[in-house]
Amino acid sequence: MSVPKKISDVLIVGAGPVGAVCALALRLQGIAAHLLEAQAGDARADSRTLALSHGSRLILERLGVWQKLDDVTPITRIHISQRGALGVARLAAEEVDVPALGYVLPYAGLAVALKQALADAGIAVEYGVTVERIDSGTDAATVHATAGRALTAPLVVVADGGRGDAVPEPRFERDYAQMAVVCDVQTELPHASQAYERFTPEGPAALLPKGDRYALVWTASNADAQRIAAMTDAEFLTALYRHFGGRQGLFLHASARRTFPLRLAYTGSKSATRVVRIGNAAQTLHPVAGQGFNIGLRDAWELASLCGDTAPDAIGGAAMLAAYARGRRVDVLGGVGFTDFLVRVFSNNVAPLRHARGLGLLALEVFPPLKAFVARRMIFGARG
Question: Rounded CA gap, 152 and 137, in Å?
Fold first, then answer.
């Protein structure tokens, strides 16, 4: 067993976007970070599509990363409706005085830009390092990694997306028995930077403008999702038109379909003394309303800001971690509750609820203060 080696002020497990943002934000505060990433440095790029809020753009701008991104499509309007029932709400960027409500971009593009930003900043990243366990102590936490290595730091930040071996039992979880079918689709009509959130009894379907196409997130039961993903292109396009409707005309082309299981898991940020969890390592949300990834970036930014406001010898201490947990509770639980509410209330065909949903969408459409309240909290979180 090797003797633990102190490696930096903050040790971050996971060099994905949330971990990278945390390290870059810590550097702005004059705090050294060291990252450990299980994947190899030349690992195949993730093919997912991200929906970033304008609030997340502001974070990336402050880190000098946003300016280096290309292939970004703004969302200036969002059309919200429910299939087979009355009620439509429309959100527009100008109504809340922002250039865009959100932005759609490839995960791989953001990952490349952040990786380059880490290198430019001289922040150390070790790839291909698997963390086997983390031991907390009074003055430091020890990370036990591959090849018998042991590294210590006053604060260990777990930003591995909840993929590590030592994942605590969630304080709250819900299996939606749903999967997301995702792909890119070409529509007959141009998107004009408008996104759609279409609620159906089987689950929500979202169209997000992406380049000259849409990124589709189609939620269905596990069995239906597998059946949908296995359809031929022609069958899939016909089924999607039946499911979504003709607001964008016909669906002309679709890329290969992939599926992801959907669940809610809330572990919380504080897992042990000297250890804190952020992003999907702390909470995993349903993709409806696109809150999960944006909450993770706010986790990273707020943690780094708090570290900057804390005396150097108190970073990672119980008082600081308790303050972080208190500061994030409203934003995180608000996002968890909001997405869970949308999935459970809108994913059914119960007549009283269907009518109540219609009235709710109507209220959102006709009362500007309510519309601004919802939009700003989707963009900026609880502090919107």
Answer: 10
